């Protein structure tokens, strides 16, 4: 679908959304909202009752009447299975607010306004896309760790069929034999081993292209159906462009590994800067998709009392910088991977027999050491990882007595556990000389930790003004 077509569909959706908002406002003056006003706010009730009504199939233009039913969809169920029974109830009920019931709320901007069913469909699509990106990152990690990334020596944006006959395989193998990696590291490799590394790289590339199609087709369908608001449309178009750019960055990265290294002793490898750019961009796409999916299905954060909203605001002051620190640590990990710095010192806590290696500033200018010197890059990653663990521990410690929503408390606990696991995985990876299994688990762990940080930061957002106004000062029936 062309850019112009997307823009015209978004304009049409904007107009339709405007119509739906007006019809909604009309209906809000009706008996329905008066009824609702006498009881709990429907959006508020979402978080305190698990017997919510089911998602309803409503035509887009009859959205106003939907308000009357205060329908609620459970788009976001049990993202964490908490062991403690009563938490589970709250977690399960962190489902989405009915789009229609929340539509006329002050300060609440919905990303999908075409009703709960549309909200649910778009949410499922976006969560699936995020999970796909997650799997792409893991597959990319395996490709790198099995040293398969330089097996394909050319690239087409649209992709191509793999070699199908023995003759095709021999042609591909011949091309690979001209590459510096074959000449310096894999000389004498047999065709079966070549086929393995080729298939790894091929799978990574094709999985990425499949993601592009899996994203674009539902996107154009939802646009046509009028489910996508202009705000969401712009955000998703930006993510789609980043995704397309990711393929280009990937090839730009691989190209650097196909060039002859500057010295005859150097091993051919991709530029650490390009690898870091590729990984960081994958993280950014994942985070953007996951955050957007959450915003679609959970437009309001869980808030049952003003006290809990205040508690969440206090958590936010710490959770935001901690989230940024996790992101920086992950990017520093990308430089460890890009420089193969995991093999620089395979001891812990000391690096060799020193706490700080002697050569950390051996490169000139000094700045280069932070990105290219394996000792400095590994030391940075250790320091940042320790700071991350300590700050997540600090977040957990300083919030343990706060009056906060149980879901938020549970998320902080899970983040703490995941940070400890991630550090353990990192140390194990290092001590065992970066095996494929642990390296991959450590990479997936980084993304899981980021996921939890996003979830936490999303959950402690400030609720809309109208939800805030409807809240009691203290949560009722906490343990029921
Ligand atoms: C919160 C803590 C941590 C986070 C978020 C984190 C994140 C990352 C990330 C994103 C990578 C790049 C993954 C890849 O492309 O393969 C990485 C690589 C690495 N990290 Fe960590 N890490 C953490 C803690 C640690 C610790 C404590 C150590 C050991 C002291 C460690 C050792 C390594 C090593 C050796 C690699 C390179 C693995 C490879 O070459 O594939 N990490 N880390």
From TrEMBL:
Keyword Protease among UniProt keywords: no
Named cofactor requirement(s): heme b
Top-level division of the source organism's lineage: Eukaryota
Associated pathway: Porphyrin-containing compound metabolism; heme A biosynthesis; heme A from heme O: step 1/1
InterPro entries in alphabetical order: COX15/CtaA_fam, HemeA_Synthase_type2
PANTHER family hit by this protein: CYTOCHROME C OXIDASE ASSEMBLY PROTEIN COX15, CYTOCHROME C OXIDASE ASSEMBLY PROTEIN COX15 HOMOLOG
The name this protein goes by in its record: Cytochrome c oxidase assembly protein COX15
Organism of origin: Ilex paraguariensis (yerba mate)
